[in-house]
Design brief:
Structural class: alpha+beta
CATH superfamily of one domain: Thiolase/Chalcone synthase
CATH class of one domain: Alpha Beta
Helix content: 25-40%
Radius of gyration: 20 Å
Order of helices and strands: EEHHEEEHEHEHEHEEEEHHHEHHHEE
Length: 382
């Protein structure tokens, strides 16, 4: 029997600047040029988001005294500015690298028996900026990894991208039992926030945040007392509708998120079908899904909290308990939607909880442009 391929050393990092949701709401609501409908949408979107605080690399998005010309926020007038895409991406290149390195270093440090010299592959993930040499190169350089380490970057896939990154890492380990893969996701979503009368843009502004998540994927045996996830299998599905309801495009003033109010309903209609191929290899899981008993068969659910309404739909459609959505709701409340990094925060929440016991099954799901549903089945190792 082959050794289990495990996700180990799950670590998360956020920037130091905190955004209090109520304060951000008031700033967006007071912007010049907003019509009355947009003002009402701002109030509603921020108030029902399920978010209390978020984090950003933009230190100027506070009222603390700062020197120099403002780029994103004029503290004197309270006005959100409109920098071009180049200015936003230059900040991404400056701010993302330290987060990649910090998250990667934390994952290695949190994985007993693994040193930087053991890393054979690096997979970096992001959809909020670009630069080359890219973050995969910077991680190898700044962590002192070997010059022969294989590097891969998954870019511009959206909120689900950490799932295929973990799947790719597991495939490397299945092909080479000695592989040790460092997976890091960094998203700086707040670089693309801006004032607008467009409902989709307003909703995005009420949800998105910055953060980083990382972990080690390997078939090496766990150390005594270590907690991890065995990566059992992955699936991907594209829903037959929704291609235009969730999208991520590059505009002149940053990346433009399309997140229509139809997304929760689309997920509601298709989430069961997306889970069927994931559960099919195990008869008890397949039967549980077909009989609305999935919450009994799978103890923990790492659902990407794309928004409060998405979590509500998932909970209702799959008949999950309130407790099973706590990790996702707590992540949304405390960190916001950090695009692809978010599901790693949810998984870490589950792994550190007292409720997670050895042998518990975990279903992880993330949603993104397409509309794409990425899922994984895992087992707690404790």
């Amino acid at each position: 029997m082959s050794a289990a391929i495990s996700l180990r050393g799950l670590s998360t990092v956020v920037p130091s600047t905190v955004l209090i949701q109520e304060e951000v709401r008031d700033v967006f609501a007071a912007q010049p040029g907003l019509n009355r409908l947009a003002q009402r949408i701002v109030a509603t979107s921020f108030n029902v988001s399920g978010i209390e605080r978020r984090y950003t690399v933009l230190e100027e998005l506070t009222y603390e005294a700062r020197e120099g010309e403002p780029v994103f926020f004029d503290q004197a007038t309270g006005e959100l500015l409109l920098p071009g895409t180049k200015a936003r991406n230059e900040i991404y290149a400056e701010e993302a690298t330290p987060l990649y390195v910090e998250a990667g270093r934390a994952a290695i440090a949190a994985t007993p028996g693994i040193e930087a010299s053991d890393i054979t592959h690096v997979i970096t993930v992001s959809c909020t900026g670009f630069y080359a040499p890219g973050p995969d190169f910077m991680v190898v350089r700044d962590l002192g990894l070997g010059a022969a380490v294989q590097r891969y970057h998954l870019g511009f896939m959206g909120c689900y991208a950490s799932m295929p990154a973990l799947r790719q890492a597991a495939q490397f380990c299945a092909a080479d039992p000695d592989a040790v893969v460092l997976v890091i996701s960094v998203e700086l979503c707040t670089l693309h926030l801006r004032s607008s009368n467009d409902p989709d843009t307003i909703v995005a502004s009420s949800l998105f945040a910055d953060g980083a998540g990382a972990g080690i994927v390997t078939a090496r045996p766990l150390e005594p007392g270590e907690r991890a996830f065995a990566l059992d299998r992955f699936e991907t599905r594209v829903t037959p509708v929704g291609e235009g309801d969730m999208a991520w495009k590059i505009g002149d003033h940053g990346f433009e998120m399309v997140l229509s109010n139809a997304v929760p309903s689309i997920i509601d209609d298709h989430i069961t079908g997306a889970l069927e191929p994931l559960f099919a290899p195990e008869a008890d899981l397949a039967e549980a899904l077909a009989t609305d008993a999935a919450s009994d068969a799978v103890a923990h659910w790492a659902i990407h909290p794309g928004g409060r309404s998405i979590l509500d739909k998932v909970e209702s459609r799959l008949a999950l308990t309130e407790a099973q959505l706590v990790p996702a709701r707590e992540t949304l409340r405390d960190f916001g939607n950090m695009s692809s990094a978010t599901v790693l925060f949810v998984l870490r929440n589950i792994l550190l909880s007292d409720a997670a016991a050895d042998g518990d099954r975990v279903a992880a799901m993330a949603f993104g442009p397409g509309l794409t549903v990425e899922s994984a089945l895992m087992t707690v190792q404790a």
